[in-house]
Amino acid sequence: MSATHINSYYAATANDDTRYPRLRGTVTADVCVVGGGFSGIATALSLAERGYKVVVIEAERIGWGASGRNGGQMIAGISGEHRIESQLGDAGRKLLTEIRYLGHDIIEGRVARHQIRCDLKHGWMEVAARPRHMEGLRSYVEERVAAGDGDGLELVEAADMGRVIGSDLYHGAMVDRKSGHLHPLNLCLGEARAAVTAGVQIFEESPVMEVAGGAKPFAATAEGRVDAASIVLAGTMDPKFQTGPLGGLLFPTGSYIVATEPLPERLAKAVSPQDLAVADSNVVLDYFRLSADRRLLFGGRCNYSNRDPRDVREALRPRLTEVFPQLEGVKLDYAWGGRIDIVLTRVPAIGRREPNVYYMQGYCGHGVNTTHIAGQIVADAIAGTMEKLDLFEKIRHVRLPVGQFLGNQLLALGMLYYRLRDLL
Ligand SMILES: Cc1cc2nc3c(=O)[nH]c(=O)nc-3n(C[C@H](O)[C@H](O)[C@H](O)COP(=O)(O)OP(=O)(O)OC[C@H]3O[C@@H](n4cnc5c(N)ncnc54)[C@H](O)[C@@H]3O)c2cc1C
Protein backbone atom coordinates (compact mmCIF):
# COMPACT_ATOMS: atom_id res chain seq x y z
CA MET A 1 0.00 0.00 0.00
CA SER A 2 1.37 3.42 -0.83
CA ALA A 3 1.63 6.11 1.83
CA THR A 4 -0.88 8.95 1.71
CA HIS A 5 -1.09 12.32 3.40
CA ILE A 6 -3.56 12.60 6.27
CA ASN A 7 -6.98 13.93 5.37
CA SER A 8 -6.47 17.68 5.78
CA TYR A 9 -7.44 20.85 3.94
CA TYR A 10 -3.85 21.00 2.69
CA ALA A 11 -3.84 17.46 1.25
CA ALA A 12 -7.18 18.17 -0.44
CA THR A 13 -5.74 21.29 -2.12
CA ALA A 14 -2.21 20.04 -2.87
CA ASN A 15 -1.19 21.11 -6.35
CA ASP A 16 1.43 18.41 -6.96
CA ASP A 17 0.96 14.65 -6.66
CA THR A 18 4.46 13.61 -7.67
CA ARG A 19 5.44 10.20 -6.28
CA TYR A 20 9.10 9.53 -5.68
CA PRO A 21 10.48 5.96 -5.81
CA ARG A 22 11.49 3.75 -2.91
CA LEU A 23 15.18 3.44 -2.15
CA ARG A 24 16.48 0.12 -3.49
CA GLY A 25 20.15 -0.88 -3.70
CA THR A 26 23.14 1.30 -2.88
CA VAL A 27 23.40 4.95 -3.87
CA THR A 28 26.32 7.28 -3.18
CA ALA A 29 26.12 10.98 -2.45
CA ASP A 30 27.99 13.81 -0.77
CA VAL A 31 25.18 14.27 1.73
CA CYS A 32 22.32 12.01 2.76
CA VAL A 33 19.36 13.84 4.31
CA VAL A 34 16.95 11.72 6.38
CA GLY A 35 13.45 13.25 6.48
CA GLY A 36 11.43 14.94 3.74
CA GLY A 37 9.76 17.78 5.67
CA PHE A 38 10.81 21.43 5.59
CA SER A 39 14.03 20.67 7.50
CA GLY A 40 15.15 18.02 5.01
CA ILE A 41 13.99 19.65 1.80
CA ALA A 42 15.30 23.10 2.79
CA THR A 43 18.70 21.61 3.68
CA ALA A 44 18.85 19.56 0.48
CA LEU A 45 18.02 22.57 -1.67
CA SER A 46 20.56 24.79 0.12
CA LEU A 47 23.23 22.14 -0.50
CA ALA A 48 22.26 21.43 -4.11
CA GLU A 49 22.39 25.18 -4.86
CA ARG A 50 26.07 24.96 -3.84
CA GLY A 51 26.78 21.98 -6.08
CA TYR A 52 26.58 19.10 -3.58
CA LYS A 53 25.20 15.72 -4.64
CA VAL A 54 22.32 15.15 -2.22
CA VAL A 55 19.93 12.27 -1.53
CA VAL A 56 16.77 12.69 0.60
CA ILE A 57 15.16 9.62 2.20
CA GLU A 58 11.60 10.03 3.50
CA ALA A 59 9.74 7.33 5.49
CA GLU A 60 6.30 8.28 4.13
CA ARG A 61 5.75 11.08 1.62
CA ILE A 62 7.26 14.53 1.18
CA GLY A 63 5.54 16.88 3.65
CA TRP A 64 3.78 14.00 5.43
CA GLY A 65 4.69 15.22 8.94
CA ALA A 66 4.25 18.59 10.64
CA SER A 67 5.48 20.42 7.52
CA GLY A 68 2.39 19.43 5.55
CA ARG A 69 -0.07 19.94 8.41
CA ASN A 70 0.80 23.16 10.23
CA GLY A 71 -0.95 26.50 10.67
CA GLY A 72 1.08 27.98 7.80
CA GLN A 73 2.09 30.98 9.89
CA MET A 74 5.46 32.35 8.83
CA ILE A 75 6.58 34.10 12.00
CA ALA A 76 9.79 36.11 12.47
CA GLY A 77 12.47 34.98 14.89
CA ILE A 78 12.84 31.61 16.53
CA SER A 79 11.62 29.92 19.68
CA GLY A 80 13.66 30.48 22.85
CA GLU A 81 15.16 33.90 22.02
CA HIS A 82 15.44 34.93 25.68
CA ARG A 83 17.42 31.80 26.45
CA ILE A 84 19.75 32.43 23.50
CA GLU A 85 20.39 35.98 24.74
CA SER A 86 20.90 34.94 28.34
CA GLN A 87 23.29 32.10 27.45
CA LEU A 88 25.21 33.66 24.55
CA GLY A 89 25.11 37.41 25.38
CA ASP A 90 26.17 39.76 22.57
CA ALA A 91 26.96 36.87 20.21
CA GLY A 92 23.40 35.61 20.79
CA ARG A 93 21.86 39.04 20.13
CA LYS A 94 23.87 39.36 16.91
CA LEU A 95 22.80 35.87 15.83
CA LEU A 96 19.13 36.65 16.48
CA THR A 97 19.28 39.87 14.46
CA GLU A 98 20.98 38.05 11.56
CA ILE A 99 18.47 35.20 11.44
CA ARG A 100 15.22 36.99 12.42
CA TYR A 101 13.97 37.25 8.83
CA LEU A 102 16.41 34.81 7.21
CA GLY A 103 13.77 32.06 6.94
CA HIS A 104 11.35 34.52 5.32
CA ASP A 105 14.01 35.63 2.83
CA ILE A 106 14.80 32.03 1.88
CA ILE A 107 11.13 31.11 1.47
CA GLU A 108 10.21 34.26 -0.45
CA GLY A 109 13.27 33.87 -2.71
CA ARG A 110 12.40 30.25 -3.52
CA VAL A 111 8.70 30.96 -4.06
CA ALA A 112 9.64 33.67 -6.56
CA ARG A 113 12.51 31.81 -8.26
CA HIS A 114 10.73 28.48 -8.62
CA GLN A 115 7.21 29.92 -9.04
CA ILE A 116 5.83 27.89 -6.16
CA ARG A 117 2.08 28.36 -5.82
CA CYS A 118 1.59 28.33 -2.05
CA ASP A 119 -0.73 31.30 -1.37
CA LEU A 120 2.06 33.30 0.31
CA LYS A 121 0.72 36.51 1.87
CA HIS A 122 2.25 39.11 4.14
CA GLY A 123 0.81 40.20 7.49
CA TRP A 124 0.86 38.40 10.85
CA MET A 125 -0.11 39.54 14.31
CA GLU A 126 0.13 38.51 17.92
CA VAL A 127 -3.02 39.45 19.86
CA ALA A 128 -2.88 40.17 23.61
CA ALA A 129 -5.02 37.60 25.40
CA ARG A 130 -4.64 39.47 28.74
CA PRO A 131 -4.23 43.22 29.36
CA ARG A 132 -0.75 42.60 30.84
CA HIS A 133 0.36 40.82 27.64
CA MET A 134 -0.04 44.14 25.77
CA GLU A 135 2.73 45.62 27.93
CA GLY A 136 5.02 42.78 26.82
CA LEU A 137 4.21 43.47 23.16
CA ARG A 138 4.77 47.20 23.67
CA SER A 139 8.22 46.76 25.17
CA TYR A 140 9.14 44.19 22.49
CA VAL A 141 8.31 46.72 19.74
CA GLU A 142 10.18 49.50 21.57
CA GLU A 143 13.29 47.30 21.87
CA ARG A 144 13.17 46.34 18.20
CA VAL A 145 12.69 49.97 17.11
CA ALA A 146 15.55 51.12 19.40
CA ALA A 147 17.79 48.45 17.82
CA GLY A 148 16.94 49.83 14.35
CA ASP A 149 15.12 46.63 13.46
CA GLY A 150 11.48 47.63 13.89
CA ASP A 151 10.29 48.34 10.36
CA GLY A 152 7.14 46.42 9.56
CA LEU A 153 6.06 46.36 13.22
CA GLU A 154 3.06 48.27 14.52
CA LEU A 155 1.05 48.26 17.74
CA VAL A 156 -2.74 48.21 17.64
CA GLU A 157 -4.42 49.54 20.79
CA ALA A 158 -7.46 47.78 22.30
CA ALA A 159 -9.91 50.44 21.08
CA ASP A 160 -8.63 50.02 17.55
CA MET A 161 -8.82 46.22 17.27
CA GLY A 162 -11.86 46.25 14.98
CA ARG A 163 -9.50 47.40 12.25
CA VAL A 164 -7.59 44.09 12.33
CA ILE A 165 -9.92 41.42 13.72
CA GLY A 166 -13.63 40.72 14.10
CA SER A 167 -13.38 39.59 17.73
CA ASP A 168 -13.89 41.42 21.05
CA LEU A 169 -11.71 39.04 22.97
CA TYR A 170 -8.33 40.77 22.75
CA HIS A 171 -6.62 43.68 24.49
CA GLY A 172 -4.47 44.95 21.65
CA ALA A 173 -1.98 43.50 19.19
CA MET A 174 1.38 43.72 17.50
CA VAL A 175 1.31 43.44 13.71
CA ASP A 176 4.38 42.34 11.76
CA ARG A 177 3.90 43.21 8.10
CA LYS A 178 7.04 41.26 7.07
CA SER A 179 5.74 37.97 8.50
CA GLY A 180 2.74 36.24 6.95
CA HIS A 181 1.09 32.98 5.98
CA LEU A 182 1.16 30.29 3.32
CA HIS A 183 -0.04 26.81 2.30
CA PRO A 184 2.71 24.73 3.92
CA LEU A 185 2.22 21.46 2.03
CA ASN A 186 2.32 23.25 -1.32
CA LEU A 187 5.48 25.09 -0.24
CA CYS A 188 7.16 21.82 0.78
CA LEU A 189 6.13 20.01 -2.43
CA GLY A 190 7.25 22.99 -4.53
CA GLU A 191 10.62 23.12 -2.82
CA ALA A 192 11.01 19.35 -3.31
CA ARG A 193 10.37 19.78 -7.02
CA ALA A 194 12.93 22.62 -7.14
CA ALA A 195 15.41 20.40 -5.30
CA VAL A 196 14.97 17.63 -7.89
CA THR A 197 15.50 20.16 -10.68
CA ALA A 198 18.73 21.16 -8.90
CA GLY A 199 19.87 17.50 -8.95
CA VAL A 200 18.63 16.13 -5.60
CA GLN A 201 17.47 12.51 -5.59
CA ILE A 202 14.38 11.90 -3.43
CA PHE A 203 13.10 8.56 -2.15
CA GLU A 204 9.72 8.14 -0.43
CA GLU A 205 8.18 5.29 1.59
CA SER A 206 11.66 4.33 2.72
CA PRO A 207 12.03 4.45 6.51
CA VAL A 208 15.67 4.68 7.57
CA MET A 209 16.44 1.96 10.13
CA GLU A 210 20.13 2.54 10.72
CA VAL A 211 22.47 5.51 10.56
CA ALA A 212 26.23 5.53 11.07
CA GLY A 213 28.86 8.25 11.15
CA GLY A 214 32.56 7.53 11.55
CA ALA A 215 34.87 6.62 8.68
CA LYS A 216 32.12 5.29 6.38
CA PRO A 217 28.88 7.12 7.07
CA PHE A 218 25.65 5.63 5.71
CA ALA A 219 21.88 5.56 6.16
CA ALA A 220 20.16 2.22 5.54
CA THR A 221 16.54 1.23 4.87
CA ALA A 222 15.10 -2.30 4.60
CA GLU A 223 15.86 -2.41 0.87
CA GLY A 224 18.67 0.04 0.28
CA ARG A 225 21.40 2.25 1.59
CA VAL A 226 23.03 5.60 0.90
CA ASP A 227 26.78 6.00 1.43
CA ALA A 228 27.62 9.67 1.93
CA ALA A 229 30.31 11.85 3.48
CA SER A 230 27.73 13.53 5.75
CA ILE A 231 24.36 12.50 7.14
CA VAL A 232 21.68 15.00 8.20
CA LEU A 233 18.89 13.92 10.57
CA ALA A 234 16.35 16.49 9.42
CA GLY A 235 13.48 16.70 11.90
CA THR A 236 12.49 14.42 14.71
CA MET A 237 13.28 10.78 14.08
CA ASP A 238 12.52 7.50 15.81
CA PRO A 239 13.61 7.35 19.47
CA LYS A 240 16.52 5.07 18.48
CA PHE A 241 18.19 7.99 16.69
CA GLN A 242 17.67 10.35 19.65
CA THR A 243 21.01 9.49 21.21
CA GLY A 244 24.00 11.51 22.51
CA PRO A 245 23.13 15.23 22.54
CA LEU A 246 19.53 14.34 21.56
CA GLY A 247 18.85 12.08 24.57
CA GLY A 248 16.01 13.26 26.87
CA LEU A 249 15.71 16.48 24.88
CA LEU A 250 12.30 16.41 23.20
CA PHE A 251 8.77 16.06 24.46
CA PRO A 252 6.14 15.57 21.78
CA THR A 253 2.73 17.16 22.13
CA GLY A 254 -0.24 17.45 19.77
CA SER A 255 -1.67 20.47 18.03
CA TYR A 256 -4.92 20.41 16.05
CA ILE A 257 -6.60 22.44 13.32
CA VAL A 258 -10.09 22.71 11.88
CA ALA A 259 -10.95 24.28 8.51
CA THR A 260 -14.41 25.78 8.13
CA GLU A 261 -16.38 25.67 4.91
CA PRO A 262 -15.47 28.62 2.60
CA LEU A 263 -16.96 31.75 4.19
CA PRO A 264 -19.02 34.26 2.21
CA GLU A 265 -16.81 37.20 1.27
CA ARG A 266 -18.51 39.63 3.69
CA LEU A 267 -18.22 37.26 6.64
CA ALA A 268 -14.56 36.50 5.86
CA LYS A 269 -13.85 40.24 5.71
CA ALA A 270 -15.66 40.76 9.03
CA VAL A 271 -13.60 38.03 10.72
CA SER A 272 -10.26 39.06 9.26
CA PRO A 273 -10.44 42.53 7.67
CA GLN A 274 -6.75 42.56 6.69
CA ASP A 275 -6.28 38.82 6.02
CA LEU A 276 -3.61 38.56 8.74
CA ALA A 277 -2.38 35.33 10.31
CA VAL A 278 -3.05 35.51 14.05
CA ALA A 279 -1.55 33.86 17.13
CA ASP A 280 -2.60 34.78 20.64
CA SER A 281 -0.12 35.59 23.40
CA ASN A 282 -0.85 32.59 25.62
CA VAL A 283 1.77 29.87 26.06
CA VAL A 284 -0.89 27.28 25.21
CA LEU A 285 -2.12 29.32 22.29
CA ASP A 286 -4.82 29.63 19.62
CA TYR A 287 -3.72 30.41 16.06
CA PHE A 288 -5.85 31.10 13.01
CA ARG A 289 -6.01 32.65 9.55
CA LEU A 290 -8.00 32.59 6.34
CA SER A 291 -7.07 30.20 3.54
CA ALA A 292 -6.92 31.36 -0.07
CA ASP A 293 -10.48 30.08 -0.57
CA ARG A 294 -11.71 31.99 2.55
CA ARG A 295 -11.95 29.15 5.06
CA LEU A 296 -11.01 29.96 8.62
CA LEU A 297 -8.18 27.60 9.64
CA PHE A 298 -8.36 27.60 13.43
CA GLY A 299 -5.78 25.73 15.47
CA GLY A 300 -4.74 25.14 19.00
CA ARG A 301 -4.30 22.63 21.70
CA CYS A 302 -7.65 21.35 22.75
CA ASN A 303 -6.78 19.33 25.83
CA TYR A 304 -4.03 19.29 28.39
CA SER A 305 -3.73 15.55 28.91
CA ASN A 306 -1.22 15.19 26.05
CA ARG A 307 -3.55 12.66 24.40
CA ASP A 308 -5.21 13.12 21.02
CA PRO A 309 -8.84 14.28 21.39
CA ARG A 310 -11.44 11.77 20.23
CA ASP A 311 -13.15 14.38 18.03
CA VAL A 312 -11.02 17.35 16.95
CA ARG A 313 -14.03 19.23 15.53
CA GLU A 314 -16.01 19.09 18.74
CA ALA A 315 -12.91 19.79 20.82
CA LEU A 316 -12.02 22.99 18.91
CA ARG A 317 -15.50 24.33 18.08
CA PRO A 318 -16.23 25.92 21.50
CA ARG A 319 -13.03 27.96 21.38
CA LEU A 320 -13.56 28.96 17.75
CA THR A 321 -17.04 30.34 18.53
CA GLU A 322 -15.80 32.04 21.70
CA VAL A 323 -13.32 33.97 19.54
CA PHE A 324 -15.75 34.47 16.63
CA PRO A 325 -19.39 34.21 17.82
CA GLN A 326 -20.46 35.18 14.28
CA LEU A 327 -19.24 31.72 13.13
CA GLU A 328 -21.70 29.81 15.35
CA GLY A 329 -23.03 26.84 13.37
CA VAL A 330 -20.48 27.12 10.52
CA LYS A 331 -19.60 23.77 8.96
CA LEU A 332 -16.16 22.36 9.76
CA ASP A 333 -15.06 20.62 6.57
CA TYR A 334 -11.69 19.32 7.75
CA ALA A 335 -10.04 18.48 11.08
CA TRP A 336 -6.57 17.10 11.66
CA GLY A 337 -3.62 17.16 14.01
CA GLY A 338 0.13 16.78 14.12
CA ARG A 339 3.03 16.54 16.45
CA ILE A 340 4.93 19.49 17.92
CA ASP A 341 8.24 18.76 19.58
CA ILE A 342 8.95 20.83 22.65
CA VAL A 343 12.47 21.39 23.97
CA LEU A 344 12.50 22.48 27.61
CA THR A 345 14.84 25.44 26.95
CA ARG A 346 12.61 26.28 23.92
CA VAL A 347 15.74 26.72 21.74
CA PRO A 348 15.73 24.48 18.61
CA ALA A 349 18.38 21.76 18.70
CA ILE A 350 20.78 22.27 15.79
CA GLY A 351 24.19 20.60 15.87
CA ARG A 352 26.19 17.42 15.37
CA ARG A 353 25.69 14.01 16.96
CA GLU A 354 29.10 13.03 15.55
CA PRO A 355 31.47 15.11 13.40
CA ASN A 356 29.67 14.06 10.18
CA VAL A 357 26.13 13.41 11.53
CA TYR A 358 24.10 16.63 11.81
CA TYR A 359 20.68 17.16 13.39
CA MET A 360 17.97 19.84 13.48
CA GLN A 361 14.77 19.50 15.47
CA GLY A 362 12.67 20.81 18.37
CA TYR A 363 11.27 24.01 16.86
CA CYS A 364 8.55 24.20 19.57
CA GLY A 365 5.75 24.95 17.09
CA HIS A 366 7.68 27.74 15.36
CA GLY A 367 9.16 25.82 12.45
CA VAL A 368 7.94 27.22 9.14
CA ASN A 369 10.71 29.82 8.98
CA THR A 370 13.10 28.16 11.48
CA THR A 371 13.44 24.94 9.47
CA HIS A 372 14.69 27.06 6.58
CA ILE A 373 17.15 28.88 8.85
CA ALA A 374 18.36 25.53 10.25
CA GLY A 375 18.74 24.12 6.73
CA GLN A 376 20.98 27.03 5.77
CA ILE A 377 23.04 26.80 8.97
CA VAL A 378 23.67 23.07 8.46
CA ALA A 379 24.41 23.55 4.74
CA ASP A 380 26.90 26.32 5.70
CA ALA A 381 28.52 23.98 8.23
CA ILE A 382 28.88 21.16 5.70
CA ALA A 383 30.45 23.69 3.33
CA GLY A 384 32.91 24.69 6.07
CA THR A 385 31.35 27.83 7.67
CA MET A 386 30.68 26.73 11.24
CA GLU A 387 29.98 30.06 12.96
CA LYS A 388 26.21 29.77 13.51
CA LEU A 389 26.22 26.01 14.09
CA ASP A 390 28.88 26.51 16.77
CA LEU A 391 26.61 28.99 18.57
CA PHE A 392 23.66 26.60 18.57
CA GLU A 393 25.92 23.80 19.82
CA LYS A 394 26.92 26.00 22.77
CA ILE A 395 23.34 26.18 24.09
CA ARG A 396 23.02 24.24 27.33
CA HIS A 397 19.78 22.27 27.04
CA VAL A 398 17.76 20.92 29.92
CA ARG A 399 17.20 17.17 29.74
CA LEU A 400 14.90 14.99 31.75
CA PRO A 401 16.48 11.64 32.64
CA VAL A 402 13.12 9.91 32.43
CA GLY A 403 11.44 7.54 29.99
CA GLN A 404 9.00 8.72 27.32
CA PHE A 405 5.92 7.74 29.38
CA LEU A 406 6.93 9.73 32.44
CA GLY A 407 8.13 12.53 30.16
CA ASN A 408 4.66 12.78 28.62
CA GLN A 409 3.01 12.94 32.05
CA LEU A 410 5.39 15.72 33.06
CA LEU A 411 4.69 17.60 29.84
CA ALA A 412 0.93 17.31 30.45
CA LEU A 413 1.47 18.73 33.95
CA GLY A 414 3.63 21.51 32.55
CA MET A 415 0.97 22.42 29.99
CA LEU A 416 -1.68 22.50 32.68
CA TYR A 417 0.54 24.84 34.68
CA TYR A 418 0.95 27.21 31.71
CA ARG A 419 -2.77 27.01 30.87
CA LEU A 420 -3.62 28.05 34.44
CA ARG A 421 -1.06 30.85 34.25
CA ASP A 422 -2.52 31.99 30.89
CA LEU A 423 -5.95 32.17 32.53
CA LEU A 424 -4.82 34.29 35.50
C1 LIG B 1 -0.70 21.27 13.88
C2 LIG B 1 0.60 22.04 13.78
C3 LIG B 1 0.55 23.41 13.58
C4 LIG B 1 1.75 24.13 13.46
N1 LIG B 1 1.68 25.45 13.11
C5 LIG B 1 2.81 26.13 12.86
C6 LIG B 1 2.75 27.46 12.35
O1 LIG B 1 1.67 28.00 12.09
N2 LIG B 1 3.92 28.13 12.16
C7 LIG B 1 5.12 27.54 12.42
O2 LIG B 1 6.16 28.21 12.25
N3 LIG B 1 5.23 26.26 12.82
C8 LIG B 1 4.10 25.52 13.03
N4 LIG B 1 4.17 24.22 13.41
C9 LIG B 1 5.50 23.58 13.55
C10 LIG B 1 6.10 23.21 12.18
O3 LIG B 1 5.14 22.58 11.39
C11 LIG B 1 7.30 22.26 12.40
O4 LIG B 1 8.22 22.84 13.30
C12 LIG B 1 8.04 21.94 11.10
O5 LIG B 1 7.16 21.55 10.10
C13 LIG B 1 9.07 20.84 11.36
O6 LIG B 1 9.57 20.41 10.12
P1 LIG B 1 10.51 19.14 10.05
O7 LIG B 1 10.91 18.94 8.64
O8 LIG B 1 11.61 19.28 11.05
O9 LIG B 1 9.61 17.94 10.59
P2 LIG B 1 8.50 17.11 9.78
O10 LIG B 1 7.73 17.95 8.89
O11 LIG B 1 7.78 16.30 10.82
O12 LIG B 1 9.37 16.15 8.87
C14 LIG B 1 10.13 15.08 9.35
C15 LIG B 1 10.03 13.98 8.32
O13 LIG B 1 10.92 12.95 8.68
C16 LIG B 1 10.33 11.72 8.31
N5 LIG B 1 10.98 10.66 9.09
C17 LIG B 1 10.92 10.41 10.41
N6 LIG B 1 11.64 9.34 10.73
C18 LIG B 1 12.19 8.89 9.57
C19 LIG B 1 13.03 7.79 9.25
N7 LIG B 1 13.44 6.92 10.18
N8 LIG B 1 13.39 7.63 7.96
C20 LIG B 1 13.00 8.50 6.99
N9 LIG B 1 12.20 9.56 7.26
C21 LIG B 1 11.80 9.74 8.52
C22 LIG B 1 8.85 11.91 8.65
O14 LIG B 1 8.03 11.00 7.94
C23 LIG B 1 8.63 13.36 8.27
O15 LIG B 1 8.11 13.51 6.95
C24 LIG B 1 3.01 23.46 13.58
C25 LIG B 1 3.04 22.08 13.80
C26 LIG B 1 1.85 21.37 13.90
C27 LIG B 1 1.91 19.89 14.10
The major β-sheet equals: 9 strands, mixed
Radius of gyration: 21 Å
Tally of individual helices: 11
> Mean pLDDT, nearest integer?
94
Q: What's the helical proportion of residues?
A: 25-40%
Distance between the termini: 50 Å
How much beta, percentage-wise? 15-25%
Q: What is the N-to-C succession of helices and strands? A: HEHEEHHEHEEHEEEEEHEEEHEEEHHH
Distinct small-molecule ligands in the complex: flavin-adenine dinucleotide
How many strands in all? 17
Can you tell me the overall shape?
globular
Task: Specify the structural class.
Answer: alpha/beta
The oligomerization state is: single chain
Extract low-pLDDT stretches: none
Protein topology:
Elements: H1 9-12, E1 25-34, H2 38-48, E2 54-57, E3 73-74, H3 81-99, H4 102-113, E4 121-127, H5 131-146, E5 153-156, E6 173-181, H6 184-197, E7 201-203, E8 210-212, E9 218-220, E10 224-234, E11 250-260, H7 265-271, E12 277-280, E13 286-290, E14 296-300, H8 312-323, E15 332-343, E16 349-354, E17 357-361, H9 368-382, H10 387-394, H11 404-423
Parallel strand pairs: 1-2, 1-10, 2-7, 4-12, 10-17
Antiparallel strand pairs: 3-6, 4-6, 5-6, 8-9, 9-10, 11-14, 11-15, 12-13, 13-14, 16-17
Helix pairs in contact: 2-6, 2-9, 4-9
The chain binds flavin-adenine dinucleotide.
Task: Provide an overview of this structure.
This protein is α/β, with parallel strands linked by helices and 424 residues long. It contains eleven helices and 17 strands. The protein has helices spanning 9-12, 38-48, 81-99, 102-113, 131-146, 184-197, 265-271, 312-323, 368-382, 387-394, 404-423; strands at 25-34, 54-57, 73-74, 121-127, 153-156, 173-181, 201-203, 210-212, 218-220, 224-234, 250-260, 277-280, 286-290, 296-300, 332-343, 349-354, 357-361. The chain is globular and about 65 Å long. 50% of the residues are buried. Bound molecules: flavin-adenine dinucleotide (FAD). Residues 34-40, 57-60, 64-67, 69-73, 75, 207-208, 234-235, 237-238, 255, 257, 287, 299, 337-340, 361, 363, 365-368, 371 line the site of flavin-adenine dinucleotide. Flavin-adenine dinucleotide (FAD) is lined by residues 34-40, 57-60, 64-67, 69-73, 75, 207-208, 234-235, 237-238, 255, 257, 287, 299, 337-340, 361, 363, 365-368, 371.
